[in-house]
Amino acid sequence: MITKSWFLVGLAALAFLFSQHASAITLPSEFAGSDGAFEPTSNITIDLSQAVTGQWDLTSGSGNGVYDPAQWAVIFRYTSVNIPQGVTVTFKNHPSVAPVMWLVQGDVVINGTVNLNGANGHGNTATPTPSEPGPGGFRGGRGTRGSVPASAGFGPGGAPADDNVGRDGSYATVGSRGSSSTYGNPGVFPLIGGSGGSGGFNDDRVFGAGAGGGALLISTPSQIAVNGKISADGGRSNDYWTGHGSGGAIRLVCDNVGGLGILSALGGQNSDNSGGSGRIRIEANSNDLADLGSPPYTTAIAAETPRIFRTAGDGIPSIKAVTLGGEDVPEDPRPKQTLPADVQIAEEGTKTLSIEAANVPASSVVTVRVIPVSGEDSVYQATYDGEGGEAGVTMWSVDVDLAGGFSTVQVYAALTE
């Protein structure tokens, strides 16, 4: 399954928001360490919104990285990374909620903690808002508050809204109370995080659901030593009746990797239920990690030139919404639930969503999901309309029902060939 098209819709009048062993890894010269050495000496939160927007190989020189909309990633090019014991690195999301890539010239040493966990659901007395994912993940649903119902989880494995019990998000595995599909692949390419759980709907179930864990790629032609922890766990709910987020993704690409530390991409959990597991991938010529990963990682020999980015003509499937109700959808939509919306619709009702896909065969299943800020989500199957103007491009459409208030629209495809 693939995904990378979700956007906010707004209804103006109604406030409707809508292999072979490689002797060494070689990296292109564009991997030059323009962000310098990353050597924090105390706890630090990296504000991904400070990244310069441009193509990934743009030299920012600011240490804040580059946000590449085409890759949907915030990319840092470090000369080296050294996170001491007792130091925790966390992240503030980019407005696109893109995942993080560290492309490093030299050694990576993680004796502290790198934390990309999804947030827990809101409490019983807190303002009911969707929980924030780790970078590259998806939000968890809000809880019921009085006459305002809860919401579904976000993401391709987001838990659907239920008229009784909140559900758990899915990713590599289905959450224990989940009913959504798994997605992604063992190679963790393209890079994507976990999905959110949904809130319970009964009046007294006011706890929010956990968000999905984030996604991190670390690549170096040298070595990675993990004696601390890299964590991309899903957020949890604080109540039985609402759902947990699924775990995110960790991908390490290097010549050799080792250490006594921990790699974790588990779903949020309590004594009764848990979100689905995320994905961990190790690509290295030698592996001396003591920890086998939670969940267990998949492995491969590192390619001499590792595949990091999607490039034109590489056959990687992609999909995007083009218009909704005759209004253009931005090339780089933002999955927020505040004004200004990505698309502003003047009237509620049934609207046609037009979709463009590349390397998605006509036999595939293209799904559209509309998630309102409160209330049940709706799922639609798009219809194949024919080939687009370029080779490998297909066009799809579907009529969706839009009501007043904020809604987020997701578009994703499951390939059958």
Task: Give a quick summary of the entry.
This protein has no helices and 26 strands. By secondary structure, the protein is an all-beta fold.
Radius of gyration, Cα only, in angstroms? 21 Å
Distance between the termini: 12 Å
The proportion of strand residues reads 25-35%
* Beta strands, count: 26
Bin the helical content.
Answer: under 10%
Indicate the mean pLDDT: 88
Uncertain regions spanning at least 5 consecutive residues: 1-23
Number of domains: 2
Instruction: Please summarize the sheet with the most strands.
Output: 11 strands, mixed
Helix count, DSSP H or I runs of 4 or more residues:
0
Walk me through what this model shows.
This protein has 417 residues and is an all-beta fold. It is built from no helices and 26 strands. A hairpin with a 4-residue loop joins strand 4 and strand 5. The termini are close together. Mean pLDDT is 88; it is low at 1-23.
